[in-house]
Amino acid sequence: MNTPLPPALRLFVIGSIFASGLLAQAPKAPKVSFPPLSPQATVKQPVGVTDVEVVYSRPSMRGRKIFGAMIPYGEVWRTGANTATRISFSTPVKLQGASLAAGAYELFTIPGKNEWTIIVQKLPEKASWGAYKYEAEKDTARMKVKPAVTPTPVETFSIGISDLRDTGATIYLAWENTRVPLKLEIDTVGIVMPQVRAAMAAEGPKTWNLYYGAATLYYDNGLDLKQALAWLDEAAKLRVDYPGIYLLKTRIHAKLGEKAAAQAAAAKAVETGLKLEGPTSVMARQAKDIADSLK
Q: In this structure, are residues 55 and 21 in contact, taking their beta carbons and an 8 Å threshold?
């Protein structure tokens, strides 16, 4: 047998249900998106055959003194704001002389007036908030680097990748009047050469750009130039109208001191360049300049 609720309790329950219904029907306050003080940025840059990515947050000066004040000298810094800066490489690299395996890392720094310490640690499962829980025993590598003074202040903390080459680049940190360059080195030949050998040894037809790319790799890195010429001959059989093949042959013959062969290759580069690109052909002009220098 059910016992009826006392009148006072019954009124309380009814009132609670009524209030809950009103709250459920009440309109929600509109969402407000406030601008972040230190917005996140992503830098993606292929360097040779290596993909480099940096994810970091960008604080601004806003009239404050930064290094030696807001960011003390001699203390571990997250290298940005919010979570620690993350950097990843798709192949093994050297950063400021330290060997790093392919993978993702957190980037910490210890700023100094005359010297910075660069610290990389393997990326943890949960991103580090700041450097508050930094543990030195987890360091993958530590490197030293001399900062440079910039005449024009950088208002917003920036990380960039410049001085691009097939075998490396410069990763730089810039803020206030400080620029910290980090030398990035990549063994592009060591990475690509096994692929070239495997492709050349494989059965079946080869493409002209395989031969051309392999010859370019050899020329750019001072390898077997006679082999490079042999590959260019094969490339020309498959793509007779591409001036880049003959321009590279011109450069190789010139480097080997084979003037007559260089002149003949240059003439072919000019001929095909004018046909393909017209009178403003850059490759035709470059080939002509090399030929003229050999007269």
A: no
31-66 per-position pLDDT tens digit: 898 999 999 999 999 999 999 999 999 999 999 999
Where do the structural domains in the chain lie, given as residue ranges?
40-185, 188-293
Residue 181, CA distances (Å) to 77, 101, 117, 171, 263 in order: 17, 21, 12, 6, 43
**If you count them, how many residues does the chain have?**
295
Threshold 0.90, pTM exceeds:
no
How many Å apart are CA 230 and CA 265, to the nearest integer?
Answer: 14
| 8 Å CB contact between 120 and 105 | yes
The structure tokens listed for 82 are: 């919010």
Q: Which tokens belong to 121?
A: 């640690």
CB 115, CB 144: distance < 8 Å: yes
The correct answer on CATH 3.40.1280.10 for the domain covering 188-293 is no
DSSP secondary structure code for residue 60 in this structure? B
For residue 273, pLDDT over 90 is answered with yes
> Listing from the earlier edge strand, what are the strands of the sheet with 93-95?
98-100, 93-95, 168-185, 148-165
Report the amino acid identity of residue 93. V
pLDDT in tens, 195-221: 999 999 999 999 999 999 999 999 999
Radius of gyration of the chain (CA): 31
Neighbours of 213 (CB within 10 A): 17
DSSP state of 71: B
pLDDT band with cut points at 50, 70 and 90 for residue 29: confident
Pairing state between β 103-110 and 148-165: unpaired
Which amino acid, 52? V
